[in-house]
Design goal:
The chain is α/β, with parallel strands linked by helices. The strands form two sheets. It has a seven-stranded parallel beta sheet with strand order 3-2-1-4-5-6-7, with helices on both faces. A six-stranded parallel beta sheet has the order 10-9-8-11-12-13, with helices on both faces. It has two domains: 190 residues, Rossmann fold (3-Layer(aba) Sandwich); 168 residues, Rossmann fold, CATH 3.40.50. Helix 12 packs across helix 14. The chain is 42% helix and 16% strand. The longest helix is centred in the middle third of the chain and has 21 residues. The chain is built from 15 helices and 13 strands. The protein is globular, with a radius of gyration of 21 Å.
Length: 370
Amino acid sequence: MILHLVNDEKIINRTIDIFEVAFPGENLFIVFRKGNISMVRSGINIIPYRKFDVEKYKEQATSIIIHLMTDRKIRFINRYFPHLSTIYWIMWGSDSYSRLFYPKGLKLIDTESRYYKSQRIRRFFISPIDKLDDRLRIFRRMHFIRQRIQSFVTSTIEDDHDVLLKYYPDLKCKSWGEFSYYPIDLVMGNEVKDVWAEGPNIQIGHCGSHTNNHEYAFRILSKLDIGHAKVIVPLSYAGKKEYRRAVIEQGQMLFGESFMPIMDFLPLADYNRLMASSSFALYPNWRQEAVGNILVSLYLGSKVFLSNRNPILEWARRHGFIVFELEKIDIGDLEIPLTERDRLHNRNILLRDFDSTALYRMMRNTFSNR
């Protein structure tokens, strides 16, 4: 039996379906959340981690897949499965880039933003004990990774493995595999699978996390005449209230009535339809993030702009996608959408290389030791 350690996240229901198709009857999903589960559905193979019966599943467990590494999941494994050797870590952006690469010096955050500068005095007063705790947390995590992880698994962006080895070259001895939470045929659904993005609107970012670097994109965009276009900024998912408030204040100051923050959580079909109202999509993240949104934007035929600091830009170009560099954007780029030929080009790559058939083939190779 495969034990999946997951968070109460919106993509997990699709993940459950994917693994049940690939490995039917072999999966148990353990949901890590302090309170009641709100996003992951109920099911006979889905349980809260506080109700986990180790005696019932100890002998049945053959492998563990960590979907986003956290300290709580590390303690869970060390406590209940101290000798299980087959452990996979599917790397997310926050547990690798933010937790392991950022402390090594990788730049993730726009330090020129008003939000960052407003937080500077708070960072100055972080106590030496807190700083020591952060270093100890990284040390414990790396000890667990070196001792217990058998295989690193990148989610869609295989370049993440190269970044990991750049900062931790001693991990080259570990195996590596691939997975994706975003098979395009399942992500798009029937409602918008034949839809193309239309209209002059401009989408910026995908959530309320500060690593979206919204103000970075705002400064670039505010130098251009965007005409009657709406600036659509999804903020309903993740992030701190203070950051979302700062984004809204800056957006309203720079774009006035054209600024359109999205504060309410939308069902996937509604969110995809919202994305289809923008022929232009700007993702100012400096790390692997918003992968599902980027793929949807490409599928819909939006003109996608990525920061030259983001490894996804080089990844997308290497896979043949037609994408653009955010730092080189000019007004002409926002006056002319992608041609029909370029739209079809990007969509065909997704349907050929990033659908569920390709994913299941990938999973059989990655999780062969389950």
